[in-house]
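Internal ticket #5521
Category: modeling
Description: The requester needs a full-assembly model to guide mutagenesis choices. All entity lines are attached below as received. Residue total reported by intake: 302.
Assigned to: D.W.
Attached entities:
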Amino acid sequence: MDVQEAVAEGTASAENGEVKRDGRKQFAMGPGDILEGKLIYDGSIHADGKVEGEVRVSGNIDVASGASVRALLEGSNVTLKGQVEGAVTARDKLTLAKNARLSGDIVVRRLQIDDGATLNGHVRMGDFESHTSGQ
Amino acid sequence: MSPTRPVSNGTNGQGNSVVLGPRDRLVGELYIEGDLQVSGTVDGTLEATGNIEIAGAGKVSGTVTAYNRLVVGSDASLIGGEVRVARLTVEDGATFTGKVSMGKHAVESPKPIEPEPTSPRLEVVPVVEPAIEPTPSVKPVQPIKSVQPIKSAKPSPQPVPQKGKRR
């Protein structure tokens, strides 16, 4: 297992950056991958394996079911299926799937918690300044 | 009682089931041995040994404890309180804020904790106030406005040397 020290600000990591169909980048990790440090990324991330530190993305964050995350997470739509320890900010929606375990304070616009998920922390719900999408 | 009891939409065999309809309103505390469904407005503390469901356009502000399961429906809201539940479902669209404690440890006590009649702390408050002498202003003999000279005649109350951190 190789440790990936990632401090990528706005630029795509060469080996992990994939352009999705909709033109947005996706940073995809596998179950054996490790990310330590701070990642600021213009795109979405699929987090798997082990993540420690801070992850801020313009797109979505998706934490896989086997993943172990100890990090501050910030993204538009955040979907957790694995274990997360740390504060989570979802500019749009946070979803805790049925096997998710989250310890940490969360700030969200919308929240969905499926039966079976575990949450320990403060929940704050509010509007964010981005009113760009006039829905 | 079997460990996996069938959960119907009424009582689950654990006791009674209480329903607060959309026009019902509760201010205060409610403890239920059984299930509770709220479609109305609650301002206070809810505790149920079974499930609590905030359904419809139900609005709850306060502390919610469910020994089993709490469901917050998509049009419902739960605001500002402390939530202690074993299982939690929040549907998309629900308004939900507060402090959440989940898991068996969060709702371990199978019986309600009886409120202590008097907190023992109240008796042991080490007040370091300067002894208040009976003020001479008690006797309303003279309706003279200036009570000041009497006060100034007294030795000014020495500030008690506290070991406080404030400066």
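Resolution: model delivered.
Comment from assignee: The beta strands of chain B are 16-20, 25-32, 34-38, 41-48, 52-54, 59-61, 64-72, 77-90, 95-102.
Ticket closed.
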